[in-house]
Amino acid sequence: DFQMTQSPSTLSASVGDRVTITCRASQSVSAWLAWYQQKPGKAPKLLIYKASSLESGVPSRFSGSGSGTEFTLTISSLQPDDFATYYCQLYDSYSGTFGQGTKVEIK
Amino acid sequence: EVQLVESGGGLIQPGGSLRLSCAASEFTGRNNYMSWVRQAPGKGLEWVSIIYSGGTTYYADSVKGRFTISRDTSKNTVYLQLNSLRAEDTAVYYCARDRRDDYGDYHGMDVWGQGTTVTVSS
To answer: Do A49 and B113 touch (CB under 8 A)?
Structure first.
């Protein structure tokens, strides 16, 4: 089984900041990586799939990149609605492992 | 648009059993893969199980042998049978649709239910 290490666990930022969250896999993996946003008391929302494909309806300030063992979620200009917790998830045909999550807080 | 509604959660004693249901407004397309994901209080997301459109199932090691996923296509419903429950199974349980393309490539969980809460306590 592989492990997904997400960093940082908490990130303090201001509106307008560029924000980057990283997920590292314990071994080289396929590009079946997704990113989700979750707000308190709500179900997660899909943002990015296949590492870099933007889900329909998601603002273009969100982008994903990476391959192999390192993947990145970038928010180009943080908006008030973006303060939330973000998770990466890798699916490998047998299981779907989530990262530990990154809470984006207001600085 | 597909909607998912979970039910069946509640308070249960350690060692007990529950069956969670996830009713879908429709199952569309050839690739109907459905997953369960849980979230313990104040914790992150944990993938639990998946059922493929053909019936193949997989489980997280933490629930293997205790939980069983199944589906009733005629009712557009997916189930998660929880047996031998432990305190650490306490969580909100979400069902979600795994979206796949025609090649079977994973496109993320694009539709989620609102969650049902399972509390394991004496």
So the answer is: no
The reply to whether A95 touches chain B by the CB within 8 Å rule is: yes
Instruction: State the sign of the Cα–Cα–Cα–Cα dihedral B105, B20, A42, B91.
Output: negative
> How confident is the model over B36-60, as pLDDT tens digits?
999 999 999 999 999 998 899 999 9
**Starting at the edge strand that comes first in sequence, how are the strands of the sheet with B4-7 ordered?**
B4-7, B18-24, B77-82, B67-72
For B100-120, how does the pLDDT look when each residue is reduced to its tens digit (9 = 90+)? 888 888 899 999 999 999 999
Enumerate long-range contacts of B21-29, CB under 8 Å, 24 or more apart: B21/B77, B21/B78, B21/B79, B22/B77, B22/B78, B22/B79, B22/B80, B22/B95, B22/B113, B23/B75, B23/B76, B23/B77, B24/B76, B24/B77, B24/B78, B24/B97, B25/B1, B25/B76, B26/B2, B26/B76, B27/B2, B27/B73, B27/B76, B28/B2
Residues A19, A43: Cα–Cα separation, whole Å: 22
Residue of B nearest to A1 (CA): B61
Chain B CB within 8 Å of residue A49 CB? yes
Instruction: List CB contacts (< 8 A) between B50 and chain A.
Output: 95-96
Of A86, A83, A90, the residue nearest A45 (C-alpha): A86
User: What are the Cα distances from residue B87, in Å, to A73, B7, B77, B118?
Assistant: 34, 20, 27, 10
